[in-house]
């Protein structure tokens, strides 16, 4: 048992060493070459044949080829020199990108036997690429108030080169406002950043053109450039300005609504929304203008909205305002003067230049009542007007100038008789046809002014509160007049009067029409407590009459004076200092504040209270809003303080609490009033300080000094001057590649210290984010959340660098940037792949175990364990897999191959990765088994028998043999040939030839049965293998007789003459044998069967011929009347097809007294003689010999027939039935053919004497010689015997 185990171990160890040596010989070590990239096609990499130890002849013979694992055939082998040369341009930057090492693995495959060599070609980088910016022109937008030091990331240049040839630095064209800094990030990337070195001013320079240059570290250095255009964004610091301050427009009064009047244009040197202007009518534009005109807010075009009427308004003055959309809004103004043009579209018009005045009843004749004009708005004759009056009135028209008339009295008026006249005036223009207008003018007759006005009361009392608004109505007086018309019309006035040495007209004024009295200014009860006004009412009569009334005005006190602090005195300082001991008890009198009030009554009552520690009850608060980017030096007017004192005690100056951003200036007006103005000394920054608290103090010039304070709260309004800032500049995210769409990845957050919309942030992908990123990821603009939008594929992209922009909603927009680095985590989502490094080679069926069939590699696009692949073969195949290196395998034979049992194997290889769960791929590799010539051709029969008719055409096909070969291709291709042999001492190739391709045998000439009855052909079938194999077969060719010989007459011999003479006695009886015609046929079989017939005869009743024997006998006895000379023509025919025949002519002479030479044997007693005894002896010996020979022949044939009965050969023994039924009584012919001997017996059933002839002919014996022999033996030497009737033929033939 122990020995057996040891034996198995040794067998296993030996098998292991055998496979190891085989694998070592199949897969050799690695060879490494180093070349620079961009070599020309045909450049030599190295002498591959030398390095692999191969001769030049082996490169071609063993089919050396190079396979690239990269998929592209960058190299091939120069078969003439054995050198590895460059086949295609190699761009290292495309092939290996930024990898520090770039190695192309190659597999060199050599066949016969199959070997695999792994070589590596390292591609060395050259400085063949310049740094390149993907964006050649980039535009950056910056607010002109961007803080100095702000940084703006720029696009990095890409340089496919690596190492020292890669990108090294950036430089920027000279600009006083900008510089460039380089930021190094992970992975060695350099990001250029544009740095603001000096404040921008868009009005001075709106665009900065910069050239960014990227330099690599090669020698010489290469560079690439990008044009950077920095657009300075505007702030709203300019008013819209019209081209003109006043625009003038003329328009026809009959213009239709919608008519364009003028297009106004204002310009704003700001841009964007700051420069976008909207037009509108001025704030105080009258409704009469708004109803007639309209303006387009966007274009500034003015349109006619309503109807124009020259008579209503001949011109318009319209104020226009242009307001921009900036923040804060700025506006400009202009005026449009519209002149309305009259048109000729009116009938004559009667116009009262002055309304008809009432006529005094005592008016003299010629007194003008009214001034009338006739006018026509048309021009020319159409505008010339004539006026006429109707008759019957004490009035007439008196022309003056230019269509003007005076309506005058032309008779005595009596108001009491007629207080009013309706005078009809007709106006006619000079047009054709003329237009006419009529107008009735009422004329009143008034009385004479003889009544003065009268007030409703003699005096008036008025009570007025002090500090009233100037222009307020104090009171109203009224008077009436009994007269009529102008005589009753009253005007009011104030008679001059002194109040505190000042004219009363300085205090009040009166409306002359209605008697209303108004104050000129505000009254101060402390200065004036009351005064009187003398009002006069005067009518309009001539002469006028008047009357007077007194108005008493009383001033009422109001609380209009603040208490004034007497103690502590302001002279001691604006902040009085008091002392008190720390031991002060409750109720301790610290000090006493004393104040007085200039008002009276309860308005002068004073109370004290403590408001705050800083006593804010003494202050009033002012609120000022200032934009944080307001230019230093700007002034803001503040509210003035009021001081009732005058002179040196009045307001003198202002002071303000200390603040680094503000100072105070005082502006004096013309009336001596002082206006405090807040001056901005330093730019504001809301983000540093959003509210400034200042204390404004007003100081008077009294002694002690008195002061008042106001708190000023300055709110700094935000301007969008800060960028959104992310918490990190780079965010890192990891995500599985099989994550579902919609998976949340990260939440980004940026902050903007501006407020309002300026601090509201929207998130988006960078401007130049590639489509591959946009289709894969999605971002929520409001929240900064990034979600998975598309499918991830680790094999397509392992990482993503995504630029993110955070943009606020201010004006102008400000933005911040960050980068999100997404790492895709591999999952086992790719099945292994089986790759044929070399196509499977056909394998010889006698290949030894371990023969390499194919080189196979396995790969998996996944990484880590997911990408580790194992290959396996199913059991039952005579093949196995042998690993080599790095997932490469050799498919080798491991058992005996037999193409005849299996010509092809479909080997299923299974590749399984190490993922969880593992993925599997199967691939079927067809392996073809190459045939080896290990099977000889095999004939379909062991021998062939061919029966061939004689006299065939030369070139006729005799037969065809076929052989098959279990092998394939050339090994199974068979060629046929005839082996040399002798037939009648002549090469068989003289008789036949063979088609070498298909085995068909053809005759070289026609065969003659009489010369050659049988021969053999030895055929060889030989395949085309190497070495070739062959086999032989015998073809037996039997020549079949054809009827090609006519019967030959033996007796009477042709040599005796064509006319044979015979004699017979006249005493011949019936049945007398006159003669016997004997003929033979060289053919055989039924072709040799001969028949005789009488064709012509002198006396047909006298002679007959036996059909089969040829015996000529008398049919009756010869009489004396018969001719002594009888002529017979006998035709001899064979039984062939076609029938062959010959003739013989017998001349029979009938003689008297001639005795019969031959008697009938049956009636004659034989006489023994010496001669006849010898013949008998010969006959006995011949018969015995023939019998013995026949017996031996029968025995040989029987034995041969039994032996060959199992095969297709047989002895031929047949009975010819073709003519047997027709002719039951035929000659029995026995023919025995042996080598060189022919025995033949002919038995004539109808003859009294049958013949047996023994001859010893040769196959080459001339048939004439045989005839001569037979002829010489007849009639005396013929051997005759009697036989019974026999039917048919019997043939014996040896094969």
UniProtKB/TrEMBL annotation:
<feature type="domain" description="Cadherin">
    <location>
        <begin position="456"/>
        <end position="565"/>
    </location>
</feature>
<keyword id="KW-1133">Transmembrane helix</keyword>
<keyword id="KW-0677">Repeat</keyword>
<comment type="function">
    <text>Potential calcium-dependent cell-adhesion protein. May be involved in the establishment and maintenance of specific neuronal connections in the brain.</text>
</comment>
<dbReference type="Pfam" id="PF00028">
    <property type="entry name" value="Cadherin"/>
</dbReference>
<keyword id="KW-0472">Membrane</keyword>
<feature type="domain" description="Cadherin">
    <location>
        <begin position="843"/>
        <end position="939"/>
    </location>
</feature>
<feature type="signal peptide">
    <location>
        <begin position="1"/>
        <end position="29"/>
    </location>
</feature>
<dbReference type="GO" id="GO:0005886">
    <property type="term" value="C:plasma membrane"/>
</dbReference>
<dbReference type="GO" id="GO:0009653">
    <property type="term" value="P:anatomical structure morphogenesis"/>
</dbReference>
<feature type="domain" description="Cadherin">
    <location>
        <begin position="351"/>
        <end position="455"/>
    </location>
</feature>
<dbReference type="GO" id="GO:0005509">
    <property type="term" value="F:calcium ion binding"/>
</dbReference>
<keyword id="KW-0732">Signal</keyword>
<dbReference type="InterPro" id="IPR020894">
    <property type="entry name" value="Cadherin_CS"/>
</dbReference>
<dbReference type="InterPro" id="IPR032455">
    <property type="entry name" value="Cadherin_C"/>
</dbReference>
<keyword id="KW-0325">Glycoprotein</keyword>
<protein>
    <recommendedName>
        <fullName>Cadherin domain-containing protein</fullName>
    </recommendedName>
</protein>
<feature type="domain" description="Cadherin">
    <location>
        <begin position="1064"/>
        <end position="1159"/>
    </location>
</feature>
<dbReference type="InterPro" id="IPR050174">
    <property type="entry name" value="Protocadherin/Cadherin-CA"/>
</dbReference>
<dbReference type="GO" id="GO:0007156">
    <property type="term" value="P:homophilic cell adhesion via plasma membrane adhesion molecules"/>
</dbReference>
<dbReference type="InterPro" id="IPR015919">
    <property type="entry name" value="Cadherin-like_sf"/>
</dbReference>
<keyword id="KW-0812">Transmembrane</keyword>
<dbReference type="Pfam" id="PF16492">
    <property type="entry name" value="Cadherin_C_2"/>
</dbReference>
<feature type="domain" description="Cadherin">
    <location>
        <begin position="243"/>
        <end position="350"/>
    </location>
</feature>
<keyword id="KW-0130">Cell adhesion</keyword>
<dbReference type="InterPro" id="IPR002126">
    <property type="entry name" value="Cadherin-like_dom"/>
</dbReference>
<keyword id="KW-1003">Cell membrane</keyword>
<dbReference type="InterPro" id="IPR013164">
    <property type="entry name" value="Cadherin_N"/>
</dbReference>
<feature type="domain" description="Cadherin">
    <location>
        <begin position="727"/>
        <end position="834"/>
    </location>
</feature>
<feature type="domain" description="Cadherin">
    <location>
        <begin position="940"/>
        <end position="1049"/>
    </location>
</feature>
<keyword id="KW-0106">Calcium</keyword>
<feature type="domain" description="Cadherin">
    <location>
        <begin position="580"/>
        <end position="726"/>
    </location>
</feature>
<dbReference type="Pfam" id="PF08266">
    <property type="entry name" value="Cadherin_2"/>
</dbReference>
<feature type="domain" description="Cadherin">
    <location>
        <begin position="134"/>
        <end position="242"/>
    </location>
</feature>
<feature type="transmembrane region" description="Helical">
    <location>
        <begin position="1175"/>
        <end position="1199"/>
    </location>
</feature>
<feature type="domain" description="Cadherin">
    <location>
        <begin position="27"/>
        <end position="133"/>
    </location>
</feature>
């Amino acid at each position: 048992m122990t020995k057996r185990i040891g034996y198995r171990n040794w067998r296993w160890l030996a098998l292991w060493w055998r496979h190891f040596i085989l694998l070592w010989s199949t897969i050799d070590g690695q060879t490494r070459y180093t070349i620079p990239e961009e070599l020309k096609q045909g450049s030599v990499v190295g002498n591959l044949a030398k390095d692999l130890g191969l001769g030049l002849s082996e490169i071609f013979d063993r089919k050396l080829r190079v396979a690239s694992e990269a998929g592209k055939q960058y190299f091939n082998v120069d078969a003439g020199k054995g050198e590895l040369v460059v086949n295609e341009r190699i761009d290292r930057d495309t092939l290996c990108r930024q990898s520090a090492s770039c190695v192309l693995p190659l597999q060199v495959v050599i066949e016969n036997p199959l070997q695999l060599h792994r070589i590596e070609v390292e591609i060395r980088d050259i400085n063949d690429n310049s740094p390149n910016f993907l964006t050649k022109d980039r535009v950056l937008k910056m607010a002109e108030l961007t803080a100095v030091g702000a940084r703006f990331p720029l696009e990095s240049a890409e340089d496919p080169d690596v190492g020292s040839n890669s990108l090294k630095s950036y430089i920027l064209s000279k600009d006083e406002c900008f510089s460039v800094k380089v930021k190094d990030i992970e992975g060695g990337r350099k990001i250029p950043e544009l740095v603001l070195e000096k404040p921008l001013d868009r009005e001075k320079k709106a665009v900065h053109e910069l050239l960014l240059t990227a330099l690599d570290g090669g020698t010489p250095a290469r560079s690439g450039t990008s044009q950077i255009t920095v657009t300075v964004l505007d702030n709203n610091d300019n008013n819209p300005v019209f081209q003109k301050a006043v625009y003038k427009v003329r328009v026809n009064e009959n213009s239709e609504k919608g008519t364009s009047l003028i297009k106004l244009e204002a310009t704003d040197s700001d841009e964007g929304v700051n420069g976008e202007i909207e037009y509108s009518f001025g704030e105080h534009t009258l409704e009469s203008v708004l109803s007639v005109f309209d303006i387009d807010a966007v274009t500034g075009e003015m349109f006619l909205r309503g109807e124009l009427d020259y008579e209503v308004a001949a011109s318009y003055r319209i104020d226009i305002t242009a307001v921009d959309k900036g923040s804060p809004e700025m506006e400009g103004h202009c005026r449009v003067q519209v002149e309305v043009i009259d048109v000729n579209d009116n009938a004559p018009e009667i116009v009262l230049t002055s309304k008809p005045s009432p006529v005094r009843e005592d008016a003299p004749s010629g007194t003008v009542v009214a001034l009338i004009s006739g006018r026509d708005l048309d021009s020319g004759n159409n505008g010339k007007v004539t006026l006429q009056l109707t008759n019957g009135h004490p009035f007439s028209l008196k022309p003056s100038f230019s269509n003007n008339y005076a309506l005058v009295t032309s008779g005595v008026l009596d108001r009491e008789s007629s207080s009013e006249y309706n005078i009809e005036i007709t106006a006619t223009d000079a047009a054709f046809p003329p237009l006419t207008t009529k107008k009735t003018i009422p004329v009143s007759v008034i009385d004479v002014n003889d009544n003065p006005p009268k007030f409703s009361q003699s005096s008036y009392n008025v009570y007025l509160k002090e500090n009233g608004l100037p222009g307020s109505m104090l009171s109203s007086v009224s008077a009436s007049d009994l007269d009529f018309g102008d005589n009753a019309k009253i005007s009011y006035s104030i008679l001059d009067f002194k109040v505190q040495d000042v004219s009363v007209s300085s205090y009040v004024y009166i409306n002359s029409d209605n008697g209303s009295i108004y104050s000129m200014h505000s009254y101060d009860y402390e200065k004036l407590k009351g005064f009187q006004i003398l009002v006069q009412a005067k009518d309009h009569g001539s002469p006028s009459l008047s009357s007077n009334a007194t108005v008493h005005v009383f001033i009422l006190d109001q609380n209009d004076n603040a208490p004034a602090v007497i103690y502590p005195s302001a002279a001691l300082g604006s902040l009085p200092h008091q002392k008190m001991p720390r031991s002060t008890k409750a109720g301790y009198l610290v000090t006493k504040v004393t104040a007085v009030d200039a008002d009276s009554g309860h308005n002068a009552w004073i109370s004290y209270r403590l408001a705050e520690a800083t006593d804010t009850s003494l202050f009033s608060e002012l609120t000022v809003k200032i934009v944080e980017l307001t230019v230093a030096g700007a002034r803001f007017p503040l509210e003035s303080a009021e001081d009732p004192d005058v002179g040196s005690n009045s307001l003198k100056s202002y002071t303000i609490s200390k603040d680094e951003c503000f100072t105070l200036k005082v502006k004096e007006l013309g009336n001596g009033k002082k206006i405090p103005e807040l001056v901005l000394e330093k730019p504001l920054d809301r983000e540093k300080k959003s509210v400034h608290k200042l204390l404004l103090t007003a100081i008077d010039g009294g002694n002690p000094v008195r002061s008042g304070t106001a708190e000023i709260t300055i709110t700094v309004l935000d301007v969008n001057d800060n960028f959104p800032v992310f918490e990190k500049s780079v965010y890192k995210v990891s995500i599985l590649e099989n994550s579902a769409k919609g998976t949340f990845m990260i939440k980004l957050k940026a902050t903007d210290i501006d407020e309002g919309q300026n601090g509201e942030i929207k998130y988006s992908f960078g401007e130049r984010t590639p489509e591959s990123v946009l289709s894969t990821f999605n971002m929520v603009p409001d929240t900064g959340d990034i979600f998975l939008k598309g499918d991830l594929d680790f094999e397509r992209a392992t990482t993503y660098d995504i630029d993110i922009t955070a943009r606020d909603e201010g004006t102008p927009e400000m933005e911040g940037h960050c980068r999100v680095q997404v790492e895709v985590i591999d999952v086992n989502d790719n099945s292994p792949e089986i790759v044929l490094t070399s196509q499977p080679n056909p394998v010889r069926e006698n290949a030894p175990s371990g023969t390499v069939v194919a080189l196979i590699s396995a790969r998996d696009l996944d990484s880590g364990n997911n990408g580790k692949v194992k290959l396996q073969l199913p059991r039952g195949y005579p093949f196995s897999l042998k690993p080599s290196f790095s997932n490469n395998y050799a498919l080798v034979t491991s058992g005996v191959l037999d193409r005849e049992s299996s010509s092809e194997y479909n080997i299923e290889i299974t590749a399984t990765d190490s993922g969880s769960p593992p993925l599997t791929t199967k691939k079927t590799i067809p392996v073809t088994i190459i045939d080896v010539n290990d099977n000889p051709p095999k004939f379909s029969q062991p021998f062939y028998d061919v029966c061939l008719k004689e006299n065939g055409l030369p070139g006729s096909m005799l037969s065809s043999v076929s052989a098959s070969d279990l092998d394939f291709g050339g090994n199974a291709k068979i060629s046929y040939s005839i082996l040399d042999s002798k037939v009648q001492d002549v090469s068989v190739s003289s008789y036949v030839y063979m088609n070498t391709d298909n085995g068909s045998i053809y005759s070289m000439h026609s065969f003659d049965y009489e010369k050659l009855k049988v021969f053999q052909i030895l055929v060889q079938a030989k395949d085309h293998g190497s070495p070739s194999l062959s086999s032989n077969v015998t073809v037996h060719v039997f020549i079949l007789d054809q009827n090609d010989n006519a019967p030959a007459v033996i007796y009477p011999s042709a040599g005796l003459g064509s006319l044979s003479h015979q004699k017979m006695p006249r005493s011949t009886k019936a049945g007398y044998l006159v003669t016997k015609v004997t003929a033979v046929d060289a053919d055989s079989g039924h072709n040799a069967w001969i028949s005789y017939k009488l064709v012509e005869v002198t006396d047909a009743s006298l002679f007959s011929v036996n059909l089969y024997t040829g015996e000529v006998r008398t049919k009756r006895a010869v009489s004396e009347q018969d001719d002594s000379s009888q002529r017979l023509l006998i035709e001899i025919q064979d039984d062939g097809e076609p029938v062959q025949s010959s003739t013989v002519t017998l001349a029979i002479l009938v003689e008297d007294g001639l005795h019969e030479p031959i008697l009938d044997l049956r009636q004659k007693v034989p006489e023994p003689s010496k001669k006849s005894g010898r013949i008998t002896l010969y006959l006995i010996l011949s018969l015995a010999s023939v019998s013995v020979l026949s017996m031996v022949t029968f025995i040989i044939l029987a034995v041969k027939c039994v032996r060959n009965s199992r095969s297709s050969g047989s002895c031929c023994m047949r009975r010819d039935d073709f003519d047997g039924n027709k002719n039951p009584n035929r000659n029995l012919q026995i023919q025995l053919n042996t080598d060189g001997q022919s025995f033949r017996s002919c038995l004539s059933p109808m003859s009294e004497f049958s013949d047996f002839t023994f001859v010893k002919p040769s196959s080459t014996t001339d048939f004439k010689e045989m005839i001569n022999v037979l002829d010489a033996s007849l009639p005396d030497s013929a051997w005759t015997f009697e036989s019974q009737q026999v039917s048919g033929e019997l043939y014996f033939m040896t094969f």
